[in-house]
Amino acid sequence: MIDTAFNWACDMPSEVASLVALLMSGLAQLTILPDDRVLRLAVYSALALALLTLVVMSQVVVLSELASRREARRRGFIAAWRPHLAAWSLEAEDKALPAPPRSRQERIWFLLLWSRVQRQLRGTAQQRLNVLLERLGMIAPVLGLLESRAVHRRLVALACLRHLADVAHWSAVSPLLDSRNVTISLAAAQTLVAMDPERAMQRIMSKLEERRDWAMPRLEALCQQAGRQAVTAPLLDRLSAPRGGTTRAVALLWWAEPGQAAPWARRLLADQSASHEVQELHDESRCAALRSLGELRDPRDRDLLVAHLDDEAPAVRLAALAALRRQASVADQALIASLLADPNWWVRQAAADALVALPDMDDAALTTLLASLTDRYGQDALRRAMAEGRR
């Protein structure tokens, strides 16, 4: 056994040498290109593919490393600046300010952090951060971002200017309201509203039909941000203009002051001249006018509301009933009960809910009314409203 192990140990160098010789001969064969052109092309293609794979892999590794280092720098930058912003939001510091961000990327990081902190603050704390932004000399870089081709940089600048709400920057933001990018144009609209609500709503209402890409929920959010006082005058001017009472303008009537919108609503409801082509728009306008008068709750409008309970359009009857319900009394019981026989399901349900909500309308009176009904669908509607009213 010892002799066998000794012989194997002695033969080991020769076997290693044979393996090395075999490997070298294989490499030598690889360096010799075949004579066949097709095989030679295949070898070249394989080498090119291998080289391309190595390049792509190297690029992925390099980009990953760069992204990792940039993320580490960003976290360190935010960790260094967050305490300063927190301290300034509590009380403006008299000590020397830290050096402002120098590189373009650091300025973007700072502005994003500043905007994020601003969204969490209210009142004087926001004003302190505005002062900090000015003392750091960041206003000029923010305005410079408005000229950038990158959409995200423009949005960062608009967000910062919205928090500043300084009308001095109106001329820099106003042209972006005409941007073909709907996101930028709406962000510019928000910023203008923050600067000067009444002036901004004048511009927004003038572009109401031109910018069909502005979604109604975003327009309603702008009206809510501006407030009813700022919305009312430009909206009523738009509605009173020739062909101004479009669907988009009428839908925003809810955000106007009811007292100021009442004259327009009364004129519209009193005008019965509507061509067949614009009847649908006319019905939507009347519904909006009825909702506005209902919110006002003026007893002088009662006859006008009652007159529209017999309108041909179910939506108009429903809007008139909802407006009348806000000022109805027990004396209107018979009038509302007659709507339980309305052919429209929604009108019947609304009439039943209005009856149950009438003051001094107890269960005994409702039961008596239910027994007097002859319309089966009206009975079902009233039963449903009575059952829900007892919950």
UniProtKB/TrEMBL annotation:
Transmembrane segments: 16-34, 41-63
UniProtKB keywords: Membrane, Repeat, Transmembrane, Transmembrane helix
This protein's record includes keyword Transport: no
Presence of the UniProt keyword Cell membrane in the record: no
InterPro entries xrefs: ARM-like (IPR011989), ARM-type_fold (IPR016024), HEAT (IPR000357), PBS_lyase_HEAT (IPR004155)
Highest taxon, organism lineage: Bacteria
Name assigned to this protein: HEAT repeat-containing protein
Organism of this sequence: Franzmannia pantelleriensis
